[in-house]
Amino acid sequence: xxxxxxxxxxxxxxxxxxxxxxxxxxxxxxxxxxxxxxxxxxxxxxxxxxxxxxxxxxxxxxxxxxxxxxxxxxxxxxxxxxxxxxxxxxxxxxxxxxxxxxxxxxxxxxxxxxxxxxxxxxxxxxxxxxxxxxxxxxxxxxxxxxxxxxxxxxxxxxxxxxxxxxxxxxxxxxxxxxxxxxxxxxxxxxxxxxxxxxxxxxxxxxxxxxxxxx
Length: 214
Hints:
214 residues, 10 helices
């Protein structure tokens, strides 16, 4: 069994009771997206695979905002698999820098592998699946679907973003519709444009139905 096979088994076990938008199937989609994007990039494919598989091993949203849990779990696992320290550091750096965090987060690390995994993760946050995940999480947090009186906040810092309880529709403006212009790779940008257009059509239909026009 290869390192990647063992990593897949580990991640499946760790996320067997995860919330529907951050479960193994999310990881699997990001992994597939990453492999697709990597085809057009000069990169270390093993780091891309490990980064994609371990990027959400313990999302801080489900650990009281603690951003150290995921990197620690990932490091302990990789050490147990006798992975080189250079590879471990690179994978941990991907986990530490992949998140949107309100869009005002300055990355402290850059690499082609991070760009690929970040694009792959962001693609899963937009389009049809992105819409499904957004409403799934909104229901999980018992948030309103929409309130015309509560306007999106586009100037949140990282902490405000993490603590926000705004209606789910606001999340489109506070994150999802911003991702198209934050993609790193050529393949990522192309796919993101298509998914972005789908979300715009969804929102137009949503507002028309909300107002009783359709």
